[in-house]
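Me: I keep going back and forth on a fold encoding question. No explanation is needed for now; the record alone will do.

Assistant:
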Amino acid sequence: MGNRYSDIKRGARLQEGLNNYIQYLQSLGTRPSRIGQQGPRNLDKLVFIKPFLIDVEATEVLSAQNTTDGYNQLQTYINGDPQAAVTDNIGTDTLAALPNFRAARVILFLNATRSVTVARSDVTNLEYLKYAGTRYSCAFGATADTDDIMDAFAGIKAATIQALGGTNEICQVSLSRERVSLG
């Protein structure tokens, strides 16, 4: 019978979090700006890809920004899949300009010890579990016009987990899809 009213108790706690969130949003104008205080994102590696969703000429590629660590950690698994590719060398290809394009990304989170701490949210003042670990991401694209982004991601995910899953307690691989906006 201990769990009988657990949803009601949880609702009261979430209501407190919602009230704190509303106060946070209402005080946005009075808080000092933190823009520029976090330091640079360190996107220091320019990579080249062929998009999945848009047709480009056979000799054209698009560029994306990456961290060197993310590229070094993931490019082997990306290029190991027959439907995905990423390179840091443009070669004889030409760079196509597509201003509202965002490349697909593989996102990898590694935690060797499954260590976790209880943290408190600055926004809602509720506690949550914060996992220690390292996060990498790398842009990737297609190798041919007929390649499917989900098939490519499934191959990259399987290869990454097979290679890194045995040495890490947590090996989470996720996808950020390619985006193209017209405006």
Observations:
- The longest helix spans residues 6-26.
